[in-house]
Amino acid sequence: MLLLHGWPTSSYLWRNVMPEIAAAGSRAIAVDLPGFGRSDKPLDASYSFRFFDRVLDGFAESLGLERLGLAVHDIGGPIGLHWASRQPERITRLALLNTLVYSRLSWAAIAFIAAAKAPGVRAALTSPRGLRFAMRFGVHDRSRLSEETLDAYLKPFASADARRALAKAGTGLHPDGLKELDAWMPTVAVPVRIVYGARDRILPDVERTMKRVAADVQGGAETTVLEDCGHFLQEDRPDLVGEALGGWFGS
Questions:
Q1: For residue 119, is the peptide bond before it cis, meaning its omega torsion is within 30 degrees of 0?
Q2: What are the residue boundaries of the structural domains of the chain, listed by start?
Q3: Residue 84 above 80 pLDDT?
């Protein structure tokens, strides 16, 4: 089971969810996408759909992952789903958690993209203070984010170049790729699991998105709504997320 994070997190987001998935009998693999975590942060990369498709192709090939389940969060959603749409025969099941999917973006997503492209605002958004605010804003229960946890998320972006790469990584996906997902989602025939935090202030349209996914995919979707979780539900209630995904992936 390949687990994809979003902005501005990394594989660290899944650390307390992976044991539950593994305990249910599945191999849990989380990757730091380029621009994030401990992976390289090239400033000359496009961070486009095509770029991430090549990255995931290489990653899967290097680990010998021929068929796999996929769990996605935040911009890891469009990245992972676009990759899956190119080779659907390799995907055994899909899990979606508080993620973008379709080309119709919320005002919040549009505002984020605009901010990440504006030099002055971009610097504030990706600064240590800005990233701390983003992580705290993205959870329902701020006590879940210790200083140690926040430091782990901020450490990869200690340099100005790393922060510039982070901004590029959040704005490189072209709208045409999302339009491709509009057309692909109704063709999805593998089992789909939806788990999302209802108190998402980063993607306030998450309920609408997930209802559309459940209506689009051919077999419908098993859905769990975590009422007391925000956008980073893996931090709010990793136990519930792990339980929901572990049992389903292992079934």
A1: no
A2: 2-250
A3: yes
Could you read off the pLDDT of 53-77 as tens digits, one per residue?
999 999 999 999 999 999 999 999 9
Give the pLDDT of residue 247: 87
Contact 67, 100 (CB under 8 A): no
Q: What pLDDT is attached to residue 249?
A: 86
Q: What pTM was estimated for this model as a whole?
A: 0.96
Architecture of domain 2-250: 3-Layer(aba) Sandwich (3.40)
Give the per-residue SS3 of the chain: CEEECCCCCCHHHHCCCHHHHHHCCCCCEECCCCCCCCCCCCCCCCCCHHHHHHHHHHHHHHHCCCCEEEEEEECHHHHHHHHHHHCHHHEEEEEEEEECCCCCCCHHHHHHHHHHHCHHHHHHHCCHHHHHHHHHHCCCCHHHCCHHHHHHHHHHHCCHHHHHHHHHHCCCCCHHHHHHHHHHHHHCCCCEEEEEECCCCCCCCHHHHHHHHHHHCCCCCEEEEECCCCCCHHHHCHHHHHHHHHHHHHC
Place 146 in a pLDDT band, splitting at 50, 70 and 90.
very high
Looking at residue 54, its pLDDT comes to: 98
